[in-house]
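Progress against Task 2.4 (sequence-to-structure conversion) is shown through the following example record, which the project officer requested during the mid-term review.
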Amino acid sequence: MNIPQNASLLGNDKAEIMLDEFNISPSKFRADSFLMLIIHEFEIRFKTIDISSTDFCGVMINSTNQFFIFVNSNLAPPRRNFTIAHEISHIFLHRDSSSFFENNSTIGEHTLLNNETQIEEVEANAYAASLICPGSVLIHLIEMQCSFKRIASKTQISYETLYWRIYNILVNINGMERKRAIHILENFRNNTPGNENISDVIRKRVSHNLFI
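Structure tokens generated for the chain above:
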């Protein structure tokens, strides 16, 4: 099992458990409010800080198993949500490996497919994308015939995160040929008709794994 696949499955499992625990239906899901519920549930100390440069996104500090997350308040909402999810992912995945993880503009959504990124950051990115776009939510919105942009808007995640999340399900988890997956994704993102309907493909692929 590869790194993105394993971390994505772990992140999705955690998200689905939390959705059930918080009694959140797929139609009511928003990444920002969901993340705040997780922060409250696990007693994570969270604070936004005003830093003019968006080169700094966020940091997670582990002080004797008391976890602190600081996030730049000047980030755009989708980027802020991904950063919070990324730092939460370090708590769930790497709490025993380091007491400090910093997320800057070189480590984030645009490194989701970058093989040169540090393993722990790849894992945190994959876990974070699943955490803020759970499989049950993604399937529901696609089955409701929401467009690519509409899904990103409703869930409050970035286009890049959504693109990678669907790509990861198709390629890393289910083994679809990369070129075919990108073709389907590009058609969906650009709202262009194609030979394969995204709702049929994603429903088939996700339902054969651990998402529903």
